[in-house]
UniProtKB/TrEMBL annotation:
<comment type="pathway">
    <text>Lipid metabolism.</text>
</comment>
<keyword id="KW-0256">Endoplasmic reticulum</keyword>
<protein>
    <recommendedName>
        <fullName>Ethanolaminephosphotransferase 1</fullName>
        <ecNumber>2.7.8.1</ecNumber>
    </recommendedName>
</protein>
<dbReference type="InterPro" id="IPR048254">
    <property type="entry name" value="CDP_ALCOHOL_P_TRANSF_CS"/>
</dbReference>
<keyword id="KW-0460">Magnesium</keyword>
<keyword id="KW-1208">Phospholipid metabolism</keyword>
<keyword id="KW-0464">Manganese</keyword>
<keyword id="KW-0007">Acetylation</keyword>
<keyword id="KW-0808">Transferase</keyword>
<comment type="pathway">
    <text>Phospholipid metabolism; phosphatidylethanolamine biosynthesis; phosphatidylethanolamine from ethanolamine: step 3/3.</text>
</comment>
<dbReference type="GO" id="GO:0004307">
    <property type="term" value="F:ethanolaminephosphotransferase activity"/>
</dbReference>
<keyword id="KW-0812">Transmembrane</keyword>
<feature type="transmembrane region" description="Helical">
    <location>
        <begin position="80"/>
        <end position="98"/>
    </location>
</feature>
<feature type="transmembrane region" description="Helical">
    <location>
        <begin position="118"/>
        <end position="139"/>
    </location>
</feature>
<keyword id="KW-0443">Lipid metabolism</keyword>
<dbReference type="InterPro" id="IPR014472">
    <property type="entry name" value="CHOPT"/>
</dbReference>
<dbReference type="GO" id="GO:0005789">
    <property type="term" value="C:endoplasmic reticulum membrane"/>
</dbReference>
């Protein structure tokens, strides 16, 4: 992140978003307004945001321990303990709640800054993969579950659904919050708790005729993308585009599309069928790389600067994919683990660097309401 190109532009930034979801307006916002009153006024909004994100990471790690390869929910395998599903349901709803009250806490304590929005949406982009991978453990990859390749494409539907909203804001200046987010968070939190009560065997049974619960899960994800597309159309009918050329308007899609192409080439031409061997790690790699690309779009969108055509992360990834599919690096699993570790570390480094730069620029602490020059 270049200070001269981005930081100064944040001073003129104003957050503009539209939330038309009835569940959010009539149920969740009143609930969040009630919850935020119990938070101490010294509690920094970014700390609330980060805590909520860590609940999703904890869910991911917890299910990775009990169901690393997504086989635990299949018939004939040792299932995930019921208490894990209870914890997952509670943690997921806590993460959703904290994500809803962080902004309200910022306004309540008069501490709203562009850093807060960037921190919130940046962590949301990374949370997509943790959310999807944890939900996958409910159905698993068995006969009545979802194949790992199918889940890979479902993950990409979720990722593109997320970036669509921010792409629209890049072009119009207004963020239209997707309906599917609130509905999915409440639904999945309940599904975790129901799974704890009735067991994963319940999801083996068809809902009606031959329609399985896994099919409803898939339809819900695809339906969310269709709904977001409709909201995007509404947004473009009612807002003036900031970028006059089609090339400039579509520029933010180039890196995510290339990431999709590269990862899909690896999936299709993998000599050892890497997605079948290591689905959880592959999803983590893809989701983290996507979050890195998306965060850079969010920075450009908020600072009103031009989105770069190509993310630098895609260059070494191209080399990694070539090493894998040409069998130059024979241990494909080791290559995936090394590359995933590199992507995660690179993304954390980028996030920490951006937060530090903006904190210094605005003379604030990221996780405290105290001022740097105060005693």
């Amino acid at each position: 992140m270049n200070k001269g190109a981005h930081c100064n532009q944040f001073y003129s930034y104003l957050y503009s978003a539209v939330d038309s979801n009835p569940l959010s307006i009539y149920v969740m916002h009143p609930f969040w307004n009630f919850v935020v009153k119990f938070l101490p006024t010294w509690l920094a909004p970014n700390l609330i945001t980060f805590t909520g994100f860590m609940f999703l990471v904890l869910n991911f790690l917890m299910l990775a321990f009990y169901d690393f390869d997504f086989n635990a929910s299949s018939a004939g395998h040792q299932h995930v303990p019921s208490w894990v599903w209870v914890a997952a349901g509670i943690f997921n709803f806590l993460a959703y709640t904290l994500d809803g009250v962080d902004g309200k806490q910022a306004r309540r304590t008069n501490s709203s800054t562009p850093l807060g929005e960037l921190f919130d949406h940046g962590l949301d982009s990374w949370a997509c993969v943790f959310f999807v991978a944890t939900v996958y453990s409910i159905f698993g990859r068995g006969e009545s579950g979802v194949g790992v390749v199918t889940l890979y494409y479902i993950l990409w539907v979720v990722l593109f659904s997320f970036i669509l909203s921010h792409w629209e804001k890049y072009n119009t200046g207004i963020l239209f919050l997707p309906w599917g987010y609130d509905i999915s968070q409440v639904t999945i939190s309940l599904v975790y708790l129901v799974t704890a009560a009735v067991g994963v065997e319940t999801w083996y049974q068809p809902v009606i005729f031959h329609l399985l619960y896994r099919d409803l899960f898939t339809f819900m994800i695809i339906g969310e993308l269709c709904l977001i597309t409709q909201l995007l159309n509404m947004g473009y009918r009612n807002n003036t585009l900031k970028h006059s050329s089609l090339y400039e308007g579509l520029l933010p899609f180039l890196s995510p599309f290339l990431l999709f192409v590269l990862s899909t080439i690896w999936v299709i031409y993998s000599p050892s069928n890497i997605l079948e061997l290591q689905p959880r790690i592959f999803y983590l790699m893809v989701g983290t790389a996507f979050a890195n690309v998306t965060c850079k779009l969010i920075v450009c969108q908020m600072s009103n600067t031009r989105c770069q055509p190509l993310s630098i992360l895609l260059l070494p990834m191209t080399a990694v994919v070539l090493l894998a599919i040409t069998r130059v690096f024979t241990n494909e699993t080791l290559l995936l683990y090394l590359w995933t570790a590199a992507v995660v570390l690179a993304h954390i480094h980028y996030g920490v660097s951006v937060v530090k730069q903006l904190s210094n620029h605005f003379s604030i602490f990221a996780f405290s309401l105290k001022k740097p020059n105060s005693d």
